[in-house]
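Question (not urgent): is this output format expected?
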Amino acid sequence: MQLALVREVSPTIDQCELTHLARTPIDPGRAAAEHRRYVTVLEELGCQVRWIPPEPALPDAVFVEDTAVVVDEIAVMTRPGAASRRPETASMAGVLAAYRRVAAIDTPGTLDGGDVLRVDRVLYVGRSARTNAEGIAQLALHLAPYGYQVRPVETRGCLHLKSAVTEVAQQTLLLNPDWIDAQAFGHLALIEVDPDEPQAANALRIGGVAVHAAAWQRTRARLEQQGIRVIPVDVSELAKAEAGVSCCSVILESS
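Got this back:
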């Protein structure tokens, strides 16, 4: 069974961290409505949803992906690159302790979960403004006893690795070649985003389905042409906070 950990949108989301986007007003009510629909889609795809305790004073708290890296054997709590986001991890750790042994990234390491892309037993980790070499090295040490490989990847022009590349089907990635070197992914099949949709590389794979932002219609057509079932969701308000569809959940296997 797949478990989806989610957290409600903070009423302070308009104070979120921003790196590449200009700040524009965010309507918390509309963002919350988008998030509720997103959670409904996860439920329709068979996920059991568990709500993490809300953090109304933490503007980015809905973006739970950044707080933890979870594999079958262990959960590694991150140390987000933005200091304002570090308090988000404590409540997530409390929930994850019911399902996994919990470890953590320590200072001076920084690591955002949005910089971690798992493909089977390999975790690609982006070097970004939010994730440093020490954070990547610590993650590798935590995961090595369980047989996982950690491969650093350079990113450019984007917030996180998963802004530039995500898995949309078994051994198949969707990527923006302007933000990531496609050669880093070796034998994996690659589908490029439409050139007019540079932000369209973020998707969330649930089984045989790719959840994808509704705004990126041309890229969605490319996925469907490859036989990939896509469920579009409107995240246009959340996107003002540099969010993608993968950001708003932590998906793990649970018995």
